[in-house]
Amino acid sequence: MAKRILNVVTNVGHYVDSEDPTGHPTGLWLSELTHAWDIFAEAGYEQTLVSPAGGAVPLEPRALKFPNYDKTAKAWRADAAKMALLENTLDPAQVDAADYDAIYFTGGHAVMYDFPDSPGLQQITREIYERGGVVSSVCHGYCGLLDTRLSDGTYLIAGKRMTGFAWTEEVLARVDKLVPYNAEERAKERGALYEKAKLPFVSYVVTDGNLVTGQNPGSAKETATKVVAALGD
Questions:
Q1: pTM greater than 0.90 (yes/no)
Q2: Rg (the chain; Cα; Å)
Q3: How far apart are CA 162 and CA 147, in angstroms?
Q4: Which residues pair with 130 in a beta bridge?
């Protein structure tokens, strides 16, 4: 029976706390989905898309420009069926965590707004993790893990080695004045044993048991590969 992956994407299209919300678009960093999707598909996994509110998913414009816009993202946008998936994502209430072997949180700055405050996603994540499934994220996707607690009330990431988009990378990307909080610092406040690569924007992935996290957009392929390994395939 094929393993099943739940890919989490955002519904947010702008930096909602900026002085000019309509002037700073954001959304899903497409290649963080497409790189992983292709690797999961190659492993024979069945895949589903879910978002905090369900429905349509906006795309991060910067992810659609060179050098971020690669062949996997181009192929996705040229595929009407694939694009339709981003218009009709499930909401958490439509998802039974028992149906999935792993959850994968994609990134883009947009997820900083809607991933942390979704009780439905937190419940799904907790249930998958506590029965030994794989919980994974790439880049800002770890914002979806920041407030997730286990059944005993502790944070899922407390005491766990992990990574995610670094504050240094926020500064270099020139969005440190736009983002609503410092995700790296918040992860540390939750007790995470946060790690990052010596150089910014290079692939870096940390596996701690059934938690797999990647640091930045360039880490999506390696993150997905490590998820496949963690699932025993």
A1: yes
A2: 16
A3: 15
A4: none
